[in-house]
Amino acid sequence: MTDRPDFIVSGDEARLFPILAETSKEKRVASIFLAVMTQIPALAEETLSTVRMRVGKRTRFRAFTEVVLKEKVEDGCRPDGLLLVDTGRTQWSALIEAKIGRNELTAEQVSKYAELAKANGIDAVITISNEFVSRADHSPVSISKTLLRKVDLFHWSWSWLATVCEILEYQEAVTDSEQGYLLRQLNHFLAHPATGVERFTQMTASWKDVTQSVLNDEALKKSAPEVEAVAASCVAEERDLCLHMSSHVGQAVAARIERKLSEDPAARLKSLIDHLVARHTLSSVFRVPHCASDIDVCVDLARRTIAVSMSLKAPTDKKSTKARINWLLRMLPEDDERLLVRAHWPGRGAPTTKDVRTLRDDPSVIQNDNADATPHSFEVLLVENLGKRFSGRRTFIEDIERVVPSFYDLVGVNLKAWQMPPPKPVKARNDPDPGELMRDDLEEAGALPRDE
Asked: What's the whole-model pTM score?
């Protein structure tokens, strides 16, 4: 890509050190990001994969700012950037519109850029702002579907882009020394408050009123704007919590959403509203790579609690409840007062719950009314009552982003799913296992709990 495409009248290459007026903060941040992205293939691959672009070794990138296009739709309609991708076989292009700080996208402005892209044969419009979406093909604004017949619309949040950069650095995915230096500098730049990159820091203004209504035992209405606003805030915080946990573990953490809901943001929002009205709860499920199970997070507005949990199948090679509980307890090194174990029983037996400290002293106390029954699965939960902090728009976000990583450190990083051990050779089945003999001696001496 040595020459500019025919549809570009004028424009500057995206610069690492843009010369722009102090009032052009959005263009400055966009220029710096685009300049770095075009020089780091790993970063381009991670970001462009979300807009259905495959990046290969032969792929080349160019980015422009202050672009004037051949076909105009309205005077003054000038995008913040233009990205060109050449795969060797095909060329792909996207207009970039960036917002920073608390500036939000508008449907009118995005519609104009979609019209501009269509008029010039540009494939897509990518918006970047501090607004959160669950997927890149879900825009914060709704525009006419007619405009999207020939132009794709995507959205990236600045916080997501910053997290992608962090993960690439943690994983040492960029091996070239010069590219690594650029990536580290970009991380420092995006992390500084002066850039205007913001995370989701507070719930909607109606959060306090809705939580108070639930506390007063007042019925919530599905059609109420304040209820919809709370559900929408939940979606935004879910996305931000994914990014927060991704930074915490150094790998991409994703929310697990039913396929039919992940494809339809409006249906997802309606589902959350239904749960909020009927059960006074807001729930999300997170998938951490290589974790023993998904992590469930349930916000209970009536109890003012945050409950975080993971589920495991009980080991079937352990024959008693006590032995199965001891198997679980050995994976939990700390007796945090917030930690609970819930045992699930065969048939219609109701689940039983005890705190970890109590079970450490006597694992049999979790047994249900049927002394011969053994639990088939366990939940490990961390439940924290926030009290007055629950209704605070900022304090609620602060607490949920503290509680979930805390659960991961106490539980998620330690749990391992049970697997049936491989069968022993036939000739060795009747021979004593030296390891088991040593364990039996330790149990007899009281150094280890007995598996019963």
From this structure: 0.82
